[in-house]
């Protein structure tokens, strides 16, 4: 029955492909995979359509899953001859799909490995296909040689090992058009969701209001308070304004957050990053500061209860050493994001929700035009390892945990996680805060933030803020020169800072930096 249904879906998908309706075809293949998640052919078809949609990261992960299914199948000894022959030819197809996607992601060493595997089956290839592969092999080897040379030159700044550097590709940070969980998609959504956010915000920040901004978040138009209509199709820029006048030194937001530290095996509380031994709890409460099953210790009863309630049960007693191994291969900055992604996945598993529906990430913006590094270890194998650790199946659980969901989550984290830096590029701790994430940046901020001892982030006005004026924090040290600030934003944050100070400093010097600071930033 399900075979018949799948054949029908494949047939209809083919018609959609002919009409160049790639999104439609993708949807039908996904439906087919839900009926039979172990059908390698369907994974290959979906990989091809992902390639057409210019999502090589998804094309790669689909083809790699199909390939794994076939490798497992071909390892069986009781396979019938027709089945074996079909599987071998299918495998060639999947190797090609992996190669194509890897080339698109610029992961040259990985691409070379697929070429080697294709060449071991050279007798099954046409002459033309063999020639194409050999010429690809030659050009990839040339690229790797050039990359090796570049690595030696840039060795100091990269801080990653040679092997990973050679296989370090790039991909666009995409917005997946089929993402039904993308908030603020319609005018109705904007009104409703801004309302939801402000209802949650009011108890912890009665003087603040999350509103929609015009394109440039630093030039706020008072007439647009809040949720004025706009023809923008994508997610609008949001920001926070004062509902009423705020005076200097006033505490304006006190938000509990999700905290991660880079050394997961260290002595810090897994919930709030405080040192565990610094617990102020009375001895009688010690039992209540540890998980009864795995004995993980937290710094307080409150942290222990919150961890057990939100994510700990999904990872309790699980071995995370493989995850840590892949995380360590990434750059230090990305490792925090990976650990956050793992935490959010664990929260989603524990609460049986879709990861993108978790309120901690639901409203966060994900879209930037940035190119991000792509590496087989910390972009793909790490994801597989997370699923395995959480008891999920990479084939069966695509409804909630498909790779595009994971990548959307990563994008949201990339744009919104706050890092606490030990040294530049080396965040020791990270924080994910829903409401602080709506605060836009200014190099002349009118508010500052700090972490209090209860794992909350507190925002305090550093100047008087008038009613309806936007509240700004500074994401970086605002004391460095404008060229350095712009470089930091483009490199690390993925946007060009358009704050009044930057516009003034760049504009006034006709593109060149002026050292004199604005009167506001001198305060
Ligand atoms: C942490 S979020 C701030 C809230 C965001 N405006 C929203 O709609 O969710 C950071 C994003 O806001 C935008 N942004 C914040 N400050 C900015 C600035 N000074 N110049 C340009 N864009 C800014 C950028 O798109 C950035 O990726």
Entry summary:
By secondary structure, the protein is mainly α. The chain has helices at residues 2-18, 22-35, 40-52, 56-74, 81-105, 108-120, 127-158, 162-166, 187-201, 301-315, 321-329, 332-351, 359-362, 376-389, 398-401, 403-416, 482-493, 500-508, 519-522; strands at residues 169-172, 208-212, 238-242, 251-256, 258-261, 371-374, 418-423, 426-432, 440-441, 447-451, 456-461, 472-473.
The first-to-last residue Cα distance is 73 Å
Count of separate DSSP helical elements: 19
Q: Could you list the spans in which at least 5 consecutive residues all have pLDDT below 50?
A: 224-233, 509-523
- Kindly provide the radius of gyration, computed on alpha-carbon positions and rounded to a whole number of angstroms: 25 Å
Roughly what fraction of the amino acids lie in strands? Answer: 5-15%
Shape: globular
The strand count comes to: 12
Overall SS class: mainly alpha
How does this structure look, described?
The chain is 49% helix and 11% strand. The strands form five sheets. It has a three-stranded antiparallel sheet with strand order 4-11-10, with no helix packed on it. A three-stranded antiparallel sheet has the order 5-8-7, with helices on one face. It has a two-stranded antiparallel ribbon with strand order 1-6. It is mainly alpha-helical. A hairpin with a 4-residue loop joins strand 10 (447-451) and strand 11 (456-461). The longest helix has 32 residues, at 127-158. Among the domains are: 2-159, Tetratricopeptide repeat domain (Serine Threonine Protein Phosphatase 5, Tetratricopeptide repeat); 254-432, no CATH class. Helix 2 packs antiparallel against helix 3, helix 3 packs antiparallel against helix 4 and helix 10 crosses helix 12 (332-351). The model is unreliable at 224-233 and 509-523 (pLDDT under 50). Residues 217-218, 237-239, 365, 368, 415-416, 437-438, 440-442, 495, 497-499 line the site of S-adenosylmethionine (SAM). This is SET domain-containing protein.
């Amino acid at each position: 029955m399900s075979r018949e249904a799948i054949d029908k879906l494949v047939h209809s998908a083919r018609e959609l492909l002919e009409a160049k309706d790639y999104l439609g075809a993708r949807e039908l293949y996904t439906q087919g995979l839900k009926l039979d998640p172990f059908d390698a052919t369907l994974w290959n078809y979906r990989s091809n359509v992902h390639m057409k949609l210019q999502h090589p990261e998804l094309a790669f992960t689909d083809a790699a899953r199909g390939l794994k299914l076939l490798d497992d199948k071909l390892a069986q000894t009781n396979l019938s001859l027709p089945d074996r022959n079909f599987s071998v030819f299918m495998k060639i197809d999947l190797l090609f799909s992996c190669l194509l996607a890897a080339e698109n992601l610029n992961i040259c060493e990985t691409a070379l490995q697929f070429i080697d595997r294709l060449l071991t089956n050279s007798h099954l290839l046409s002459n033309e296909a063999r020639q194409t592969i050999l010429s690809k092999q030659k050009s990839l080897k040339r690229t790797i040689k050039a990359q090796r040379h570049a690595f030696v030159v840039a060795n100091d700044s990269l801080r990653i090992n040679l092997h990973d550097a050679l296989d370090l590709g790039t991909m666009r940070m995409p917005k997946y058009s089929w993402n039904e969980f993308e908030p603020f998609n319609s005018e109705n959504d904007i009104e409703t969701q801004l309302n939801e956010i402000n209802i949650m915000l009011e108890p912890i920040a009665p003087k603040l209001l999350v509103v929609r901004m015009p394109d440039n978040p630093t030039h706020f138009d008072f007439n647009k308070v809040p949720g004025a209509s706009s023809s923008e199709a994508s997610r609008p820029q949001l920001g926070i304004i004062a509902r009423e006048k705020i005076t200097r030194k006033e505490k304006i937001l006190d938000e509990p957050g999700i905290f991660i530290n880079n050394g997961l095996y260290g002595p810090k509380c897994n919930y709030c990053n405080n040192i565990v031994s610094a617990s102020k709890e009375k001895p009688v409460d010690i039992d209540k500061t540890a998980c009864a099953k795995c004995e993980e210790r937290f710094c307080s009863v409150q942290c222990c209860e919150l961890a057990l309630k939100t994510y700990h049960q999904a990872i309790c007693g699980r071995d995370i050493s493989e995850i840590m191994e892949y995380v360590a291969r990434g750059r230090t900055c990305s490792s925090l994001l990976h650990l956050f992604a793992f935490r959010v996945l664990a929260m989603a598993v524990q609460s049986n929700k879709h990861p993108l529906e978790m309120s901690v990430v639901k409203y966060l913006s994900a879209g930037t035009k940035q190119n991000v590094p792509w590496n087989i270890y910390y972009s793909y194998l790490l994801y597989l390892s997370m699923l395995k650790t959480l008891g999920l199946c990479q084939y069966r659980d695509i409804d909630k945990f498909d790779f595009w969901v994971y990548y959307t989550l990563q994008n949201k984290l990339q744009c919104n996680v706050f890092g606490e830096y030990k040294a530049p590029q080396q965040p020791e701790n990270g924080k994910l805060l829903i409401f602080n994430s709506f605060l836009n940046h200014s190099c002349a901020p009118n508010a500052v933030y700090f972490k209090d001892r209860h794992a909350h982030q507190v925002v305090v006005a550093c100047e008087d803020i008038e009613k309806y004026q936007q509240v700004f924090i500074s994401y970086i040290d605002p004391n460095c020169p404008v060229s350095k600030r712009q470089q930091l934003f483009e490199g690390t944050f993925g946007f060009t800072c358009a704050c009044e100070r930057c516009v003034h400093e760049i504009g006034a010097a006709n593109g060149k930096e002026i050292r004199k600071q604005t009167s506001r930033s001198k305060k």
